[in-house]
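Weekly structure sync, notes
Attendees: PL, DS, HV (note-taker this week)

Item 1: Fibronectin type-III domain-containing protein
DS walked through the input record. Source organism listed as Biomphalaria glabrata. Sequence as pasted into the shared doc:
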Amino acid sequence: PAPPGNITEIKEIKNNAYTINFIASPGNVLKYHVTVKAANGNIINESESSNNNIIISGLTPGEIYNYTLYAVNGNNVASESTYVTLKTPEKVSGAVQIDPLANLTSTSVTITWQKPNEPNGNILGYIVELFSNKSLILDYNLTCSNCSHMIPNLKPYRNYTINVAAINGAGKGLSSSVDFQTHIGKYDKLNKAIVLPSDIIGIDSLDP
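Item 1 (cont.): predicted structure, written out as tokens:
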């Protein structure tokens, strides 16, 4: 039989499982065979189907794979192979891991986080959001590898929440949150003398 054509669609149907659609071979075809290899050459999956739609499991979103497809006719004769290199579609990333907060003062804090264990694609950056009383105060869009960021201009002795999420080609990923309270601020000492009105000051003179 003639070899199958190129892959026309890769679509995720559930976690790490995808449907692979490709152009069918003309003529009498009993089945199709697909081998999927990772970029390092390791075989990820081998599957067969009686039509030009095959379910492949074990794939990761946003990864490049090499696909080898061939057709087999009723006489068990295989066609030449078709070779395709494609990237699986990205989906929003998993949550980042936030480290314990550092350098917490009455007016600032430093937050550090780790890349998601499931990036599900190429991480383009991160969004950091600061909330107080459930109201968004500010947000940052950051690009970093070893990610650490100091947030200044906080109010003393106030409760805050920080959300951090990774961004890839599919958009904003799952957020991780941390709650904290800034320290009590130091009050300025009063250096000015307090002068009371003369009409409320009484001075008694006591004879010895």
